């Protein structure tokens, strides 16, 4: 679609006088460029969604599309495979069984990651609270990856057979409060 703006006129004013305000009146018409729409539709292409559920009353076409679009959230979780920090490109497996085993481990890791992120976000929502994001601004929906990066500098150190946690800042303690007792126990807080 194309918008066409036509300026009608500038309000009358005396030649030597400074205007107090300049006002423009604008009218617009929307004219559909059917040829451009046709080209965009061709460029967008078509794709096929298939299902084993043939009964439209059980699974309508709209629901098939909704389910398909809902997969994107879980597929986004596998972005970490392309991340250079994950070193996926350096893993070589010789047998299909090992590939399947690695896929299972990665799926379980994604499940644990997603559950941890969900627990953190639910705890923040329940208390109507936030934690700082990468820019230091408050967020109620942090990624667990960011939380992991926050804790990279935290270490458990043993001094005279006593375990101690180093670099546990107030910000990190706040995050641990929302992650629950299991995480707090790991950092020797329970």
Q: What sequence of helices (H) and strands (E) makes up the elements?
A: EEHHHEEHEEHH
Radius of gyration based on Cα positions? 29 Å
DSSP summary: helix tally:
6
What amount of the residues lies in strands? 15-25%
- What gross morphology would you assign? extended
Give the rounded overall mean pLDDT: 82
The separation of the N and C termini measures 62 Å
Low-confidence stretches: 1-12
Q: What is the helix content? A: 40-55%
Number of separate strands: 6
Secondary structure category: alpha+beta
Q: Sheet with the most strands?
A: 2 strands, antiparallel
The strands making up the biggest β-sheet line up spatially as 1-2
List keywords for this structure.
alpha+beta, two-stranded antiparallel sheet, 43% helix, disordered N terminus
